[in-house]
Records
---
Amino acid sequence: MATAWQIDWEHRPPEEAALYNPAFCGELLARSVKAYCGSIDRCFPLPLAFVILPLALPPGTRRALPGKSNTTFETWAAQHEVLLSEIPSTVLALRPVTREALLFLTQHKALAISPRGLALGETPLRLSSKRTSTSTEVEEMQRTARLLGRWFANQANPNSILLAMGVQP
């Protein structure tokens, strides 16, 4: 039996195709990478790309995130253990979506993948913070993606972020 991610685009349920399309999910990943690389002079660790969508897409998770990037991840994780217990399964469920988004971004040269991680590509996306034709929900996801990039840049070690979420690096 084929999984939802093995079904051709024209046969996917419209809601899944709209929410999980590579362009939209890629935009969220690109916002995180841009914020991360703008905060710290390093490439965005590739494993962290797989936790951006599980944290940014579900409203419950997104709204539980801190409002500022100077909060330590370990402190926040200790206060949200129940919420984080669902993250590993969400990471696995959204792994094909993240892969499609990364492939989309690299094919369009918006992101570059190197052994050091992810960086903005030769033709990065134009990521305006102001849009007139978007919903509040989409704006929240975009803000969350930027926050996650800045927040992850302020943490000492990417592996500690993954371990706090129960994801093996």
---
Amino acid sequence: MDAIHGLMTGFQVALSLQGILFVLIGVMVGTIIGMIPGLGPITAIAVMIPITYGMSPSLALLLMAGVYYGAAYGGATSSILLNAPGVSEAVATTFDGYPLAQQGKAGKALAVAALSSFVGGTISVIILTFLAPTLAKVAVSFGPPEYFALMLMGLMAVASLGDGSTIKALITATLGFMVATIGIDGQTGTPRFTFGSVHLLEGIDFLVIALGLFALAEVSSLVLKRKEKVANQNPIGSLKLSKKEVKQITPTWARNSILGFLVGVLPGAGGTIASFMAYLTEKRIAKNPEAFGKGELRGVAAPESANNAASTGAFVPLLSLGIPGSGSTAVMLGALMVMGIQPGPLLITDHPDVFWGVIASMYIGNILLLLLNLPLIPYIAKVLKITRPLLISLIIVFCMIGVYGVSFSTFDLILLTVFGVLGFLMRLVNFPAAPFILAFILGDMIEQSFRQAMTISNGSVDIFFTRPVSLTFLILSLLVFLIPFFQMKRKQKKEKSMAA
């Protein structure tokens, strides 16, 4: 088979001494960058570009790719230990990862995150090896109507993030949508809800909202509970998974690795949407959805396997068509073009060492990441042994540096405080923060897709119902919306029959 022959060519590059060294450096830098809020893989890859000058394009791409999927591994650590997601892809991991850490199961949560990332990355790179050219053709067939329908399907599941209250979930989702509209309108160039402030023209950065709603709100709760005695429990816990837990998580890994890869293939979708869709899907189909949000291992396994699979999926349009699927791959595309390499349909024939070298390096990179991360978990998790006053101070400094380091704007620090207060108030009245952040992330994309689709169709909504893929997603959206009502009716009927 051509794929097998090409893969062998790639392993000749990836298994060379230089290849292994650059993959190792890439995944180590990526893991550290992923743990630190505010940096993210785009910044790390951009910093790597000057270092890659003079290197062969295949080795340069190995290094940058290692940073990219290494950051997806590292993002889970601060989410689980500190409730402070450093990158948007790790937000969904906080929903169950942080409760697990509070229950003294931080070691198990980090182990599941590492294993999920390994499984997601490995399954997706196998799919990438054999189906990259075919999937690339499917990806480019997606237009604004298909993207709108896909985003709508994600939003229809927002009610399941409400911890039992659909009304509260919808209210916080509406707030998220409102915040997403702040800034210059991308289609007309008109400032919206900026109130004359130049600081709001570019909108509000995701990191400000995520760290405010999750990390600073958590700090406020810790300050209020400062006089409570900390339970005498093992703050790290065991890393070992029982046979029952492995049996329970294995289907989650398989489902969400494929889902994450397919979402990652779509240009612009990325790991954030993949992780949210995976979490929501897993909660929907679970027999005990009420366990999610309270420390469910599947709630960590689903988003972590999906966002790592999406990182690999983003290479499909980059390598096969020369279209970047995310901000990070856009930076890699620019770096390759500077080196005289043009990713696209001819890359596999003109530069097989680059095309197959990066795919082969992902097999090695995923193994290296697992070998690096699992032994380090007991040492990383020791952050939980830090005394509460020091931990509170560290989280605040961590958030301030992360936000200021992105924009160098003191106004963003004020916004961080505002969202921290908002997140704390939402906790007091039991309003979930997850629908807010999901609506904020999807808000801008769904608006732009809807307006572009309406422009293409001259204002006719028929465009959403006459295209097969769009229509399929709309039907699935309706099912996602209706299934909870059927489940609730079924549960009520069952309770009545048991009472009788």
